[in-house]
Design a protein that fits this description.
The protein is mainly α. It has one domain (5-54). It has helices spanning 5-21, 30-54.
């Protein structure tokens, strides 16, 4: 079952704060967030490629 909306907001806020703090070069979570962002961009690129592959000509 889904978490209550207030709980999800707290988790989203925590994620955003940790992400922002990880921008500092010495933050221990820096590599985690950098790798996660790289994987997310690669996934979105792959999805976009699928869309172009399945697109019908004009």
């Amino acid at each position: 079952m889904d978490a209550p909306l207030s709980r999800r907001r707290e988790l989203i806020r925590l994620y955003i704060v940790l992400f922002a703090e990880s921008l500092h070069p010495l933050h221990p979570a820096r590599d985690f967030f950098a790798d996660r962002l790289e994987r997310a961009v690669a996934t979105l690129d792959a999805v976009a490629d699928l869309g172009r592959w399945h697109a019908r000509p004009g």
